[in-house]
């Protein structure tokens, strides 16, 4: 195993933020005087392993070029699904002549509070792995699988409590050995290219790149990260992120 591979950092910022529901793409939400995307680049800039960054943005993005970043920036145009944005970034990195054993670090623009020590730790672990490693946190809550049943007779008419769409509990999911995936996710370039090709060929539905390796039974290491590394997904997350960024600064 090459113990000192090159690291190619990529931030995916080509999403729409439909669950966040703002009129501007959520990566341009301002918190603590900067956009989320600028915060995320600034976090990577503080890692000794990273000296430049590829930003994967939407084809119609007219905001990114108006911003200053803490690293030299290159651009690629993203796709409709997150993995397609990553694939565009991977192609761009491969076209620079990068080696298949190099590491590609993928981070969400929407995770601006990742601690620097977590970035460095997941890189160090990935360096000793044949495929890669991701940040994640053990699930802390009791998890319920749900079902919906429209014709259940309840003592209280559903309308009386103003909500007809609450589901019921099916069962409790065992949380032992259950983790919440975060980013950065760090993989060998050649392997990442291959698994994304598989996702494309078989039209797999994935929400992170580690899932592509899972489909092929390729082991990816879980590195325990901070619970502060939350993603701006729903409007409530903005309150939490603002508090986390303020506490970290
Ligand atoms: N086609 C896509 C979809 C997502 N992303 C990026 O992937 C990260 C995490 O994805 P998510 O939170 O799902 O972002 P969105 O797709 O923007 O949100 P939503 O699913 O609510 O629309 C974000 O930084 C987002 O910009 C991307 O680059 N290209
Ligand atoms: C990559 C990711 O941030 C890991 O948590 C996540 O999978 C992005 O997509 P999601 O649809 O919000 O889970």
Any overview of this molecule?
There is one protein chain. The chain is of the alpha/beta class and 249 residues long. It has a single domain, classed as Spore Coat Polysaccharide Biosynthesis Protein SpsA, Chain A (Alpha-Beta Complex). Helices cover 27% and strands 24% of the residues. It contains six helices and eleven strands. Strands 5-4-1-6-10-7-11 form a seven-stranded mixed β-sheet, with helices on both faces. Strands 2-3 form a two-stranded antiparallel ribbon. Helix 4 packs across helix 5. The protein starts with 6 loop residues before the first strand and ends with a helix. 36% of the residues are buried. The structure holds cytidine-5'-triphosphate and the ligand C[C@](O)(CO)[C@H](O)COP(=O)(O)O. Residues 108, 181-183, 207-208, 231, 233 line the site of ligand LQXTBERG.
List keywords for this structure.
249 residues, binds cytidine-5'-triphosphate, alpha/beta, two-stranded antiparallel sheet, binds ligand LQXTBERG, transferase, 6 helices
Quick gist of this model?
It catalyses: 2-C-methyl-D-erythritol 4-phosphate + CTP + H(+) = 4-CDP-2-C-methyl-D-erythritol + diphosphate. This protein is of the alpha/beta class.
